[in-house]
Automatic annotation (TrEMBL):
The protein's name: Lipoprotein
Source taxonomy: Bacteria, Pseudomonadati, Bacteroidota, Flavobacteriia, Flavobacteriales
PROSITE patterns: PROKAR_LIPOPROTEIN
Length: 301
């Protein structure tokens, strides 16, 4: 009888422990879910830095393709162009880029090789290659371009994948425009990464008529999804078109809506002033000023 009572006590103790453990586990899962759903400042900084890289690379490609089709119509308003006013400055490329062109019929393959480290005038450091494939037809109003990367890094952020885009010589507003389908992964030195798929349209509203890189201005619209290393997804929709002035390191105006799970926030880049400040507003209307700087550097600080 004493042994039976002991067994019953042990069984009861295990039942209580199991209930307690399950309750704690459920509570922990709820806490984790709350953390996962929250849109953080690091989320916003990582998304913006990936967008900065995308825009900088697209600016070079836009300038190169436009130069290839319209070299005779562009004016060299300054001897200090992206290419430094030298013989290699085709399409706004600096001296440290090696350009290789292969043609097979109407198909043109252009390899832009930045070597082991090529510094742009805005102090960004690029390595590896960007490969462009397109059909050269000067009579058409659009050109379809495939852009891939080979060992390419932008300020130590590795870029892999493929973009395809349609380049229009002149849209309804009479200016160049490109619509891009993205499928690219950005990987930071600490192993964090973002895989991005979606579309982006860039309207080139200023600077296409000159060879000067710094006077380029774009209006940007689009939407995309970014999957982070932990598997969480942030969806971005541009609700007010973004303005990118290539003379500035940052987006100068416009609004992004960021969605993560059932949480939604907005990132407002301001009134056109060139600064590194954006305002993040969460679902409850709480505003936070965010300093936009490199995610990797921000994490180290």
């Amino acid at each position: 009888m004493r042994m039976n009572n002991l067994n019953l006590k042990l069984v009861f103790a295990f039942m209580v422990f199991g209930i307690t453990f399950t309750s704690c586990d459920d509570s922990n899962e709820a806490d984790v879910a709350a953390v996962v759903e929250k849109i953080t400042e690091d989320d916003a900084i990582a998304l913006v830095e990936a967008d900065d890289i995308s825009d900088e690379v697209d600016n070079m490609v836009d300038d190169y393709i436009f130069e290839d089709y319209n070299a005779s119509s562009r004016t060299d308003v300054s001897s200090k162009t992206f290419g430094g006013g030298n013989g290699n400055g085709f399409g706004g490329l600096p001296d440290c880029v090696t350009r290789t062109v292969e043609e097979e019929g109407d198909t043109k393959t252009v390899t832009l090789d930045f070597g082991d480290g090529c510094e742009l005038p805005n102090e960004h450091i690029l390595t590896g290659k960007i490969i462009l494939v397109y059909i050269k037809d000067e009579d058409t109003q659009t050109v379809n371009v495939t852009k891939t990367f080979d060992g390419f890094t932008f300020n130590d952020v590795a870029v892999e994948g493929e973009n395809t885009f349609v380049r229009t010589k002149a849209n309804a507003n009479g200016v160049p425009e490109s619509t891009k389908i993205m499928d690219v992964t950005y990987t930071w030195p600490d192993g964090e990464f973002i895989s991005r798929v979606g579309t982006k349209t860039r309207e080139w509203i200023e600077g296409s008529e000159t060879k000067t890189w710094g006077d380029n201005v774009y209006l940007i619209t689009g939407n995309w999804k970014s999957t982070f290393k932990d598997g969480t997804v942030r969806s971005v929709t541009i609700t007010t078109e973004l303005m990118r002035k290539m003379a500035c390191r940052f987006i100068v105006s416009g609004v992004m809506e960021i969605e993560k799970g059932d949480r939604v926030g907005t990132l407002d880049f301001g009134d056109g002033t060139c600064d590194n400040v954006a305002i993040f507003t969460d679902v409850d209307g709480v505003e936070t000023e965010i300093a936009l700087k490199k995610r990797f550097q921000n994490k180290k600080d």
